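This part of the workshop introduces the protein records we will be handling. A record pairs a protein's sequence with a compact description of its fold. Comparing a sequence with its tokens is the quickest way to learn the format. To make this concrete, we reproduce a full record directly below:
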Amino acid sequence: STHKGDEEIVGRIHKNIKKTQSKILSIIVPRHPARGLEIAKTLRDMGLNEILRSTNTSPDISTDIYIADLKDGVAQGIRRDLYHDRQPDWSPDGKRIVFSSDRWQGGRKGFYNLFLYDIESGAILALSHGLHNDAEPRYGPDGEYIVFSSDRDTMYNVYAVRLEEARDGRRAIT
């Protein structure tokens, strides 16, 4: 969590890193959530694009800094269930989150597959299925591909899958 004045330091560091890593998204969690608007103004004055969590707006590709101004001071889970969801990555358009999870029958045996969470509808779609571990999913810059690590061929290797719209409007992999 940050204290008053830390946002200027984060903003300067973010700008320096962005020179070589254009897709960077920094997250600030203010120690006092009521400072969210003050932090947002400071960052805007520095020429940075910011989003406040309290506005219920998802970050997108143009967002520099996401301000997690938690109204009650407590982080809130997107899903409240018994599954182990991990390694999330936002889609470039800010509408979906890909993640690795044990939320399927093979999960009871310790296997993790990939899932896609649609933020607007709350729907979760399985992207992979099998007795292997798919991990560290990341969206490609255009949002059409997801790259991930998997032990599906015994040793961990890097894989890429293309997301396409299925006939029923859901996302599917090819």
User: Anything to note?
Assistant: Residues 6-18 form the longest helix (13 residues). The chain has a mean pLDDT of 84. The CA atoms of residues 77 and 106 lie 23 Å apart. DSSP finds two helices and eleven strands in the chain.
